[in-house]
Automatic annotation (TrEMBL):
Residues 431-600 form the Acyl-CoA oxidase C-terminal domain. The active site is at residue 421. GO terms for molecular function: acyl-CoA oxidase activity; FAD binding; fatty acid binding; flavin adenine dinucleotide binding. FAD binds at residues 140, 179. Residues 15-134 form the Acyl-coenzyme A oxidase N-terminal domain. GO terms for biological process: fatty acid beta-oxidation using acyl-CoA oxidase. It comes from the Eukaryota. Its cofactor is FAD. This is Acyl-coenzyme A oxidase. Pathway: Lipid metabolism; peroxisomal fatty acid beta-oxidation. PANTHER family: ELECTRON TRANSPORT OXIDOREDUCTASE (PTHR10909), PEROXISOMAL ACYL-COENZYME A OXIDASE 1 (PTHR10909:SF250).
Amino acid sequence: MSESLQTERKNATFNIKELTDTLNGGPEETRKRKQIESLVFNTPAFHRQDRFQLSREEIYDYSIKVYGELIKLCKKENIEIRYDNPDYVRLVGCIPEEIPVGLHVGMFSSSISDQGTEEQQKKWIPLARNFKIFGTYAQTELAHGTFVRGLETTATYDESKQEFILNSPTITSTKWWPGFLGRTSNHAVIAAQLYTKSKCYGIHMFIVQLRDLKDHKPLPGVTIGDIGDKFGFDTVDNGFLRLDNVHIPRENMLMKYAKVTPEGKYLPPTNAKVAYSAMTLIRVVLVRGSAKALASASTIAIRYSAVRHQTETAPGKEPQVLDYVTQQYKLFPQLATALAFGFAGNYMIDTFNKIHSEISSGQLDALSELHGISSGLKAYTTDTATAGIEVCRRACGGHGYSNACGIQHIYANVLPCVTLEGENTVMYLQAASKVISTIKRLEQLRRSGMDQDEAWNTAGIELVQAAKAHCHYFIVKNYLRSLEKLNMTPSLRKVMNSIALLYGNYGIDENAGDFLESGFMTGEQLNLVKAKILQLLSEVRRNAVAVVDAFDFDDKYLRSILGAYDGDVYNRLYNWAKSSPLNKTEVHSSYTEYLQQLLKSKL
Ligand SMILES: CCCCCCCCCCCCCC(=O)SCCNC(=O)CCNC(=O)[C@H](O)C(C)(C)COP(=O)(O)OP(=O)(O)OC[C@H]1O[C@@H](n2cnc3c(N)ncnc32)[C@H](O)[C@@H]1OP(=O)(O)O
Ligand SMILES: Cc1cc2nc3c(=O)[nH]c(=O)nc-3n(C[C@H](O)[C@H](O)[C@H](O)COP(=O)(O)OP(=O)(O)OC[C@H]3O[C@@H](n4cnc5c(N)ncnc54)[C@H](O)[C@@H]3O)c2cc1C
């Protein structure tokens, strides 16, 4: 165990276990989490030491193996795989890979349970829940992701056969990006333009079988595959799909809200946007996901900064890099943000559960409110977490660039979240129709003769800024309210208050221009904010390692040499280097193939 980390832990002014329990929702919740986690951490099949040295094909193979192991484990332990089962959420939450179960449960099955009739649910949900079928959510196309109404895939009703016929009429209508579509899924919920009696009724969802259940071969009319290598998400076979006259029974259109009768009559839903429910669920989940990702990266960078000593500041004294105020100014706001987003994530899950049960019972009034807040917070938290994770990586210096750091993987998997489930600018704009002050500006533009679309586009930058400011304000308010409600010992409360104040003051400092421009604060007041931040950084310094310890990430989850609990960074780094595939033999084969020739040549 690193002496530096031991000292940090000894010097903490609060009880680490108390904070872990507080963040988990009580000691009993911590116990349940640890019990579930031990199932994963004690099953060797979930872990590969050489994970970061595998080829793309091997990584995909590994992710499917993990998927299978997870399903077996759930069956053995009697854990029902559904997104609203806390034990399942705990279990899947300690697997640090993207595996197909997320989309299968979170988008494929949830679309059916939210938008399917009782009969459809009776037929499909047991098949999905028992993994007799593997599903994904195929909406995005080559030419249209954001503009859902512009999708080109068609589902045309043929009343003589009571079937829908699905087609990708153009290259641009090829489904593109859906996760686990390329090689894994045999079914998909597909978004397509519904046609009946020669009239288009817009986007609706259809369950389509894509592959044979016996040999997994694509069914007639289905052309399907992986879209190729990406920045990250290397476990995922994001796919392409073309449909050529694929027939499905009428009953495969999800018909809880919108319906097509056997005779081909279209019956509209009370709110067409109810068809977007799966996207809303994942946007909500991503708020908590951002918090967890930033907490993981903060843990690695803060532990490493306590172990790392650099630059002799007095004879024989090389301080821990965590003692430099500049390092604290990089890292402690990330720690504070992770906590703030954690509370925002809890708020979103509670709000989602409340509104979701209203929607299930047919009351759709709060759908738009849920959409506004989930869009804004999804964008704000994924944007901020992505930037914060990179700050953590850079704070690890040179070793931060090695895959041994562990932050790269976190970054690569959070990065697409600023695009998937709604590109963030577009999501901010969805949240901005909800911010009162921007309406004034829009009215001004309208009075100057612009039409609604023109005015909206012209005010776009301000609208996005307003949405960001609103999300930030909401998160600060929710953070302070959540702390007030928690039952904590005075020593823990003191630490948590300092971190919350740091979050608030740092936010003002970062956006100082806006506060000055609006006349809300003077330069003198901003100087007070800066002084307060310095004071708070020194308060947080003493407890920083203990706070990240309280997140309680297992080393098997973090997979970081720089951020492991024992801080034995240098021995581990040396062993990591020795295990590099390039070091397998004493002399690499390229020597005899090329270098030796060069040495022998008479150039
Ligand atoms: C962090 C670490 C985690 C790691 C891994 C996680 C893995 C995750 C895996 C996930 C894999 C990724 C999986 C994927 O990526 S799945 C694909 C995700 N795709 C998208 O998210 C597409 C984004 N685009 C849209 O959602 C729509 O097209 C938007 C919203 C832009 C416009 O829409 P549309 O073109 O239809 O517009 P309209 O003009 O007809 O209507 C506008 C009106 O509609 C209201 N409205 C709009 N939407 C909703 C809604 N949902 N609930 C309630 N209401 C809604 C809106 O407020 C407005 O209301 P009002 O103002 O008129 O009253
Ligand atoms: C890793 C990953 C996984 C994915 N998984 C799935 C999946 O499982 N299923 C699925 O169906 N899809 C999936 N997607 C697709 C994803 O949902 C879309 O890529 C996303 O919704 C963005 O759409 P787009 O690609 O069309 O971006 P575009 O809309 O083309 O964005 C390009 C630029 O245009 C801007 N822009 C677009 N419209 C507007 C506007 N109205 N106002 C202002 N600016 C605008 C954007 O801000 C952005 O800067 C996935 C994508 C990725 C990267």
